[in-house]
Records
---
Amino acid sequence: MPLVAGAAEWLASTPLSQAMRGSLWLYPVVETVHIFGFAVLVGAVALFDLRVLGCARTLPVRTLGRHLLRWALASLLLVVPAGALLFASQPLEFIANPVFRLKLALLAAAGLNAACFHAGVYRNAAAWDVGHPAPPLARAQAALSLLLWVALITCGRMLAYV
Ligand code: HEM
């Protein structure tokens, strides 16, 4: 941790970090971008997971997947840089915050779950594209995905209070 703490101390001394702390409007604007970004991200992922869980079975899973996942990936271009800027405002406080560390761990778990889904059961989605229930593994991963994102958002919200 000394390396991480050292890097966080350096980051806190940068003009960028001072601007994020000192400006009246910069932090709220960046947080608004962060919120908009993850609203698109989690919204797209949740709608796809609900389809895999059996909602709207007449909608082809792969067509919906191509549409929603494109937006989910694009929204990361807003969520991650904005999150990093928010983090840069008080890096020492955030790395010492167990809720922030849990949030990043949940983000890694959600990413891993999605990667395993796409590299695994989703490759045979043609067999359950329309009108057929998704395989139990696909439904389990979709349910896990929903749980992880809800927990991640809860951690994000709790950051202001812990
Ligand atoms: C990709 C998925 C992510 C989601 C769904 C997410 C979700 C959230 C939520 C719900 C909030 C609270 C917003 C509010 O109500 O004011 C938040 C704040 C925050 N997030 Fe994220 N976040 C994500 C990624 C990141 C990343 C990658 C970082 C940093 C590297 C980050 C750093 C922060 C920080 C520092 C705050 C501000 C806490 C505060 O001022 O209270 N987030 N995030």
---
Amino acid sequence: MKKIAFKTLGCRLNQYETDALASRFHSGSYEIVDFSQPADIYVVNTCTVTNQSDQKSRQTINQARRQNQQAVVVVTGCMANNYKESLLESKAINFVVDNERKTSIFGLVEKHFRGEVADPEGFDHDVFSYEAAYKTFHTRSMIKIQDGCDNFCTFCIIPKVRGRAASRPAAEIYRNIAEVVEHGFKEVVLTGVNIGRYDDNGTNFEQLIEGILNLPGDFRLRISSIEPDGFTERFFELFSHPKLTPHLHLCLQSGAESILLRMRRMYTARQFRQMALKLRELYPDFNLTTDIIVGFPGETEAEFEATTNLAKELNFSHIHTFKYSVRSGTRAERMPDQLSEKVKNHRSEVIRKISEANKAAYYSAMIGKTQRLLIERIGNDGVARGYGESYIPIRIKAKNLKRNQFAEVILTGLHQGKELEMTAELVITDRSGGSNN
Ligand code: SF4
């Protein structure tokens, strides 16, 4: 049995694709081992969204080669699309497989070990034909619904490395979700590049969500990162459905109208604010998290202040902060007034502090409220951990609790460990569940 190891960098879309590949190799009688272990094959699913992600991707590729000089090293993901030529020259790498051919990696590796000529370019483009992922690295099941993007925000490299927007047939998505729920998954997370723009022959994003919510089974649905544009009234109403989790990661990027214009974003700060306030008006405990870029070319103190003011007012419980990173081939690369690392580090620190204060405030306001905890892991310390439907990390004493089980809990307080979590007490546990892989 050949040993294979996977490493995923970047977004949930990459995580979905790695889970599906790992599941395929597992059903093909390969042994999945941890990336730190010796393996016959290493698959590195890279990210190229910032300089830091490029760096981490390169370090991971070198780690694989260091661990086994004879291993087959397969590099795929967005960096494979962004730096294909230079990666093909690297002696550390056997195969460079772009995003469009990622589904073919199992066939490629099988060909290689049969001693046949294995050339990634010989496989078809296909961004959707992944098998349902059973053998995964996550308790929650990521489901890919869309790929690519047509927005071309001026700072973003993704349209170049993920191609034009494409939507997976709705029927396939329903089938995929029914399969993983049948297999025991309790939470389904929808992922893609610009999922709000989903369109399968007239079935739009809201209609797809509605179709999923009508599927049988005791599962809940989470929407992963989404662009804040094109929402209809129906979208806001959907969150009254008990299966749809009351949390959105809504990408703001900046609170300054002038910056959003230079970023070529599809909404204004005023519209974003209205969306957020509407969600809170309809669902007072609704959890909003976001992405913010600091140090975009030309960002003045006043523009940065507009961002910090909005971040405080909207009380995002978590802000994923990106220091603006020049991406070759994007419009922002040619913009004047590129800011220094010093300024970016300072502004990143300011946002990080706001995020921490917001998180403590939101969690404190949730004390005494109930959550349906999905247990993801149980530590040797006898503490079970997981997330509630509001995407709050919860820790609880693990008496008779099992992984991948729902438990009704009441939130009791805050616990500052490596991350800020909430403590809770058990109300009831549901009898079904337990490990699904
Ligand atoms: S919406 Fe903008 S930021 Fe998001 S993937 Fe598309 S181009 Fe990039």
---
Amino acid sequence: MARLDGYAAVLFDLDGVITSTARQHFAAWKEMFDDFLDMCAERNGEPFIPFGDDDYHRHVDGMPRYDGVRRFLAERGMTLEEGGPDDPPDAETVHGLGNRKNELVNDIIRRDGVEVYDGSLALLHQVRDQGIKTAVVSSSRNCQTILRAAGITDLFDVRVDGVVAAELGLPGKPAPDTFLAAAERLGVPPQRSVVVEDALSGVEAGRNGGFGLVIGVNRVGQGEALRDHGADVVVTDLAELLSS
Ligand SMILES: [Mg+2]
């Protein structure tokens, strides 16, 4: 079993690690891309190939919104104009599609609420009781809203999310920069920090940053892929990391 008590900091991803919002993100990406792909297929007289689980895990999950749009479109051999962050959600641009996805995910989260995994909550309390520092490191610009909705803002010493990354000009996962910035803000070297991630791009960021331990959280049966992308240890629930 992986032991965390020798480390000085644990850096947690949010969606899919602390909260069950990864499912809601997938649903929003799928609705947005399927509408777009269906429209393109009809326009070009080509078959409609929907956005699937594999597309999500390989090209979108864990990444900043617009990077996800670009990467998935490139995978399908499609390119769109960039546009800008203020593009309306119906604009046929990278930013327009990203904004549409954001609108959808906010609707879904408002409707469903935010669920915190019990095992994650227990681990957060335990590591903090042990004097280990905690950070939340998320690509999401909605991170703060989700933390507040879940009532868990106080369980993190530092937050590096999509808003902070944009302010600092940090590249998103799989680049390690957001995790490195969190460790630095906590005053802990990467070798003494643990990264906890459920996305392939996220464990890759952990490996790229030279962190002491990278833990992959396997919520959807992709344990082997998590290991291939850089997880030292794979768990299905963070309760497995609790020390007795
Ligand atoms: Mg995640």
